[in-house]
Design brief:
The protein has 308 residues and is of the alpha/beta class. The chain has two domains: 96 residues, lambda repressor-like DNA-binding domains (434 Repressor (Amino-terminal Domain)), CATH 1.10.260; 183 residues, P-loop containing nucleotide triphosphate hydrolases (Rossmann fold). It has 15 helices and seven strands. The strands form two sheets. The chain has a five-stranded parallel sheet with strand order 4-5-3-6-7, with helices on both faces. Helix 2 crosses helix 4.
């Protein structure tokens, strides 16, 4: 079987599978089994892993079946999306020994307070110090991130920042132009840089980020480590109606399947948004009611520094 190196430096096989007597074959099969096992243990559908790792579903299927090679760069994306170290997928020793699995299962079944205590115990630097009093609101457009973030900032006298505005200042152009000129990959790079910049310049702030940030594993994990995160959620119908009420017709313009597509996006990203430290459902609530609930979460979790 012939190997082909494409323009990205990724090695693939032109047809068939690797030879059984090829030492690389065992590695490919082992990595594929471990990726599949890690994905299944976390309950992550392949389409979700594809979105978060930015590796195609077809390529993931070949990888899990041990039928294709994979570049180190793409494997790193998959490992990050699965929240595993890449060496766990490559090493000869079983990364899922009994003790590690037992601890992992206990952590997953524990409530958020216990999980927080475990993280603070294991982390060389306290999470409270890493996150300072930085708060980030995540969720899809129309959930209320900008409206509630700005109102909460005024109520607590904390700076409110929209990450896309930071990106526009950094690039010198609107986000739409960034996407048109540099594509999704270029936007993601600017997004990661903007996150790093606000971390270095703000210890106290409320940040609102674009809904798709969860599809960039490295950036999203950086955000989760350095911000107290709150997922603002609402029903698909309210997501759509609120965006349209803001004068944005894009969700429905010429696309009768827009609502179904939005429901699919919400379903695929739910497991990622659930990594946030708290959730608030704004469905059917007034802005003031949602604000009161948000401020109560800040106070209860000691996310912010209320000013007298």
């Amino acid at each position: 079987m012939d190997e082909i190196t494409n323009f990205r430096g990724e090695v693939t096989f032109s047809k068939g599978g690797p030879h059984d007597d090829d030492p690389a074959s065992s590695l490919i099969v082992r990595v594929g089994k471990r990726v599949r096992k890690a994905r299944e243990r976390k309950g992550i559908p392949r389409r979700v892993l594809s979105e978060t790792s930015q590796v195609s579903p077809r390529y993931l299927a070949q990888l899990e079946a041990g039928e294709g090679n994979i570049s180190i760069g793409l494997l790193q994306r998959v490992a990050t999306a699965l929240d595993h170290r890449i060496e766990w997928l490559l090493g000869e020793d079983d990364p899922w020994d009994a003790d590690a699995l037992r601890v992992a299962e206990m952590y997953r079944s524990a409530n958020s307070d216990v999980q927080q205590q475990v993280l603070e115990t294991l982390s060389p630097k306290p999470n409270s110090e890493l996150r300072a009093h930085r708060i980030c609101l995540v969720g899809l457009r129309g959930a209320g991130k900008s409206t509630l973030g700005e109102m909460a900032g005024k109520a607590l006298r904390m700076p409110f920042v929209e990450l896309n505005r930071e990106i526009e200042e950094q690039s010198g152009m609107p986000v739409a132009e960034v996407m048109a000129l540099y594509g999704q990959e270029g936007y993601r790079k600017l997004e990661a840089q903007a996150i790093s910049r606000v971390i270095s310049t703000h210890n106290t702030m409320i940040l609102a980020v674009a809904g798709g940030i969860v599809a960039a594993p490295d950036t999203y994990n950086l955000l989760l480590r350095n911000f107290h995160t709150v997922w603002l959620k609402t029903s698909p119908e309210e997501h759509m109606s609120r965006v349209q009420a803001q004068g944005d017709e894009r969700p429905m313009a010429g696309n009768p399947e827009a609502l179904n597509q939005l429901k699919s996006i919400l379903a695929s990203r739910e497991i990622l948004y659930e990594k946030a430290m708290a959730q608030i459902d704004t469905s059917g609530k007034t802005v003031n009611a949602s604000l009161d609930e948000l401020l109560a979460v800040f106070k209860e979790r000691k996310f912010s520094i209320p000013k007298e």
